[in-house]
Design goal:
The structure holds two protein chains of two kinds.
Chain A lengths: L1 H12 L6 H10 L4 H21 L5 H19 L11 E7 L7 H12 L2 E5 L6 H11 L3 E5 L7 H12 L7 E5 L5 H7 L3 E2 L3 H14 L1
Helix pairs in contact in A: 1-2, 1-3, 2-4, 3-4, 5-9, 6-7
Chain B lengths: L2 H9 L10 E2 L4 H8 L6 H6 L1 H37 L3 E6 L3 E5 L2 E4 L3 E7 L5 E8 L4 H6 L6 H19 L4 E6 L4 H9 L4 H7 L1 H24 L4 E5 L3 E2 L2 E2 L3 H21 L3 E5 L8 H7 L3 E3 L9 H8 L4 E6 L11 H15 L5 E5 L8 H14 L8
Parallel strand pairs in B: 1-2, 2-7, 7-8, 8-11, 11-12, 12-13, 13-14
Antiparallel strand pairs in B: 3-4, 4-5, 5-6, 9-10
Helix pairs in contact in B: 2-4, 6-9, 7-9, 9-10, 10-11, 13-14
The chains are: A alpha/beta, B alpha/beta.
Chain lengths: ~210, ~400
């Protein structure tokens, strides 16, 4: 069992998209629980990819490719998975801010968060502060990830942060920003809680917030 | 010293009288502030129900005549505004890559799709909305590829006029309907799928690269025939903390094309500048190896360290940039902050030459007044020998 799960980890770490379905199918044929395939195989494989990204061996395209490898495997697992079996670290609302329709970075963060046990509510691009507030109320999420590429659109971040304050949710909802035009300075300026420079860092930040809850 | 000599001398590592300036293009808000706003805003024209009806119904048909003619006027306005602001050199672009398909959509001939959006200042801009080529069949049947000779002819006509009108007042860095080979592929198939295309569709990727190379080559030669002294190529190879792909792979896939393109430009006695967004630190050796004369590739919101690059590569290629557009050149900064940063850049990067101070990017939010403050600071503190305490 362990050997097969290690093979899944390796296939993801080595970005072997053509091998992953066969390996996951072997795991299922050996009656390995889907939740173990996710937690011991896929998540661990993505962790290895994340480490290689952080130490400079892998690049953004490799992170994306790892996501594609995982996407190949997930339909097989999802078909046999009882959703209640998976430990969730919390709900994260992800959005590209109003006026901006760039989504590559947001999608990579979403993919990594899902693989790390978060429930991702992706509102898409060009999302108004009102839509984010509605989603917060409807889902009860305590984490918000905002992506912005365009400097012209950063005002939206402040609007969202202010709306969260006005709704009395500032102490319970954490806002993390990322994207080409964002920075520590912008985080301070806009009143967000954290700034994630890369997708891997964003996951680390949400993990930290989740552990504090 | 005239601007052209100041710029060319800088590329060649020869003495100049002061740190030269480059404008990384201006968008509509900025050029309207310099030249005056049109009586009716673009937003009003393009959101008018009649315009929408025409574009929805006959977008493709009117695209080349009405839309492109209007765009070309805007490209000239961009150049004129940069000249009037007083930059020594500027980014002169002619972009004939788009076809309007309806009132909110444009398609780039190289395979990508864009949404037409208001820019918040009464003008219209566009944003990438996704790939146009999703399958092998899409690739084979993509209907928008242009005739490269037609593009070259149009480029010659446009740039001949621009060189005649503005070429003695500012050194024109020309870019004509040719976007970067890497970024075009990325936009065409989408970043999420690009690694799979590179891995599994090698023949198509090769053909794609060859097509882009031909367009770059022919439009470059046309601009040179028109008298353009510097070719500028944009190709975003990085994001804010590093290269998008493994630098070795970037070199293997795109290096041979760029080396041929740059050699052809140099053979005509013209300089070649490469623009790339993001943190290109791990790519500078590669880009320099391709043969560039200068790089506009030091985005201030990325992790690239322009000062360290001056130490490492300052004698191999001219550094262009330094002034941030995320804060400094926005309505949010103060004039004093701009002057302080310009002084810091000149003091550190000016000595030894091979430095052209410039905004790190174009952006629709840049106020013309902030560019003027930047330029005044360069005129005041940028004279050689540099003497800033």
């Amino acid at each position: 069992m362990e050997k097969l799960l290690v093979s899944v980890q390796q296939a993801i770490n080595e970005l072997r998209i053509d091998d992953i379905r066969g390996l996951v199918q072997q795991c299922l044929d050996e009656n390995i629980a889907p939740v173990d395939i996710i937690e011991q195989g896929i998540s661990k494989g993505l962790e290895l990819v994340g480490r290689q990204f952080e130490d400079g061996t892998y690049f953004l395209a490799d992170l994306v490719m790892a996501g594609e490898v995982v996407k190949e495997a997930m339909p097989l697992i999802d078909a046999q998975l009882d959703p209640g079996q998976v430990n969730k670290k919390g709900k994260v609302i992800l959005a590209t801010v109003q006026g901006d329709i760039h989504e590559i970075g947001k999608n990579i963060v979403g993919m990594l968060l899902s693989a790390n046990g978060f429930e991702v509510v992706d509102l898409g691009v060009d999302v108004s502060p009102e839509k984010i507030m509605t989603a917060l109320k409807e889902t009860g999420a305590r984490f918000v990830g905002l992506s912005a590429l365009l400097t012209t659109m950063v005002g939206s971040i402040k609007e969202i942060v202010d709306s969260i304050k006005e709704a009395g949710l500032k102490d319970t909802v954490k806002v993390v920003i990322g994207g080409a035009c964002t920075s520590e300075r912008l985080k301070e300026e806009m009143g967000a809680d954290a700034y994630g420079e890369t997708a891997v860092q964003a996951v680390t930040i949400f993990n930290k917030f989740s552990a504090q809850n | 010293m005239n601007p052209n000599k100041r710029i060319i001398n800088t590329f060649e590592g020869k003495p100049v009288d002061r740190v030269p300036t480059f404008c990384a293009m201006v968008e509509d808000r900025t050029f309207n502030e310099v030249l005056g706003s049109p009586p009716v805003s673009q937003e009003k024209i393009l959101t008018n129900p009649l315009t929408r009806f025409v574009l929805d119904r006959w977008g493709k048909k009117v695209s080349k005549n009405l839309f492109q003619t209007e765009l070309n006027r805007a490209f000239e306005k961009r150049i004129k505004a940069q000249v009037e602001l007083g930059f020594d050199s500027l980014w002169a672009i002619l972009d004939e890559t788009f076809t309007v398909t309806d009132h909110q959509t444009m398609v780039r001939f190289s395979g990508s799709v864009y949404k037409i959006e208001p820019d918040g200042y009464g003008n219209m801009t566009y944003m990438y909305s996704g790939p146009g080529i999703k399958t092998r069949e899409d690739f084979e049947s993509w209907p928008y590829w242009p005739n490269a000779d037609d593009l070259a002819h149009n480029s010659y006509t446009f740039f001949k006029k621009m060189v005649t009108k503005y070429g003695d007042r500012s050194c024109l860095f020309g870019q004509a309907s040719a976007y970067g080979i890497h970024e075009s592929l990325l936009w065409a198939v989408g970043f999420e799928k690009m690694p799979i295309w590179i891995m599994k569709e090698k023949d198509l990727v090769k053909r794609y690269i060859e097509t882009c190379e031909e367009i770059c080559f022919k439009t470059n030669m046309a601009m040179i025939d028109a008298g353009i002294p510097v070719i500028i190529q944009t190709d975003d190879l990085a994001f804010k903390s590093g290269p998008l792909m493994n630098p070795k792979l970037i070199d293997e896939l795109f290096g041979p094309s760029y080396q041929r393109i740059i050699k052809a430009v140099h053979d005509r006695g013209v300089k070649y500048v490469f623009h790339s967004c993001g943190d290109n630190t791990l790519l500078f050796d590669t880009i320099i190896k391709w043969g560039v004369d200068g790089m506009h590739a030091y985005e201030t919101t990325s992790n690239v360290d322009i000062y360290r690059e001056k130490e490492i590569h300052g004698d191999q290629a001219t550094i262009i940039g330094g002034v941030g557009v995320d804060y400094l050149l926005t309505d949010r900064s103060t004039d004093e902050e701009i002057v302080k940063e310009v002084k810091r850049l000149i003091k550190s990067l000016g000595p030894g030459g091979r430095f052209i101070i410039a905004p790190v990017h174009s952006l629709s939010s840049i106020p013309a007044q902030k560019l003027r403050v930047m330029l005044q600071a360069v005129y005041e503190y940028g004279n050689y020998p540099i003497s800033i305490n």
